[in-house]
Amino acid sequence: MEASQKWFEENGFTLDAVLNHQEIIPFVKTYLFKRNLFTLSYLIFNLIFLVLLLATLLIQTIYNSLSLSEAFLWFAYGCSLTFALIPFHEAIHGVAYKYCGAPKVSFSANWKKLYFMAIADKFVATRKPFYLIGLSPFIIISALFLLLAFIGTGGQQIMFFTVLFFHASMCAGDFGLMSYFIEQQDKEVATYDDAKNELTYFYIK
User: Distance (Å, rounded) from C-alpha 169 to C-alpha 33?
Assistant: First the structure.
């Protein structure tokens, strides 16, 4: 559904927050440190993947005779693969937007601050569609690499668990934005992007 600010006002919504796409980090930090389902899930998943990574490093180097230099090389492969997955991550957001009815999706990057965005210009997303859009990359990529990690062998497991941990940590923006929605759980929330002005508006009623 496309809309304008006037549409929100006519339907009883009031403007609650405006997110500048070039200043996303302060907004995300504010809501990532709230205590709710999404922020706790973000913390727990990151801890789980970190423990799995460290355990795999120990097992492969102590019990499977992988040298430290070989283990570090596989770890480096995992870091590189994580960054290579960024377009795939954003593409999943884009597909989810399309599934929810967005007529067009574009992508933006801030290379200086190293964050990336999928933008659905003038498309109104309410709570449930936004959760689907926000969670899809984390769920799909995590499930894929968990499977690969458990069927992989030797250094491959180090690489795949490295991807799991660093990809999860890089989902901070997604979980921070979903945290905003859940913090307004007693209200109806809707958001839309203004691609031209690089802004995202959040309305409540």
Answer: 14
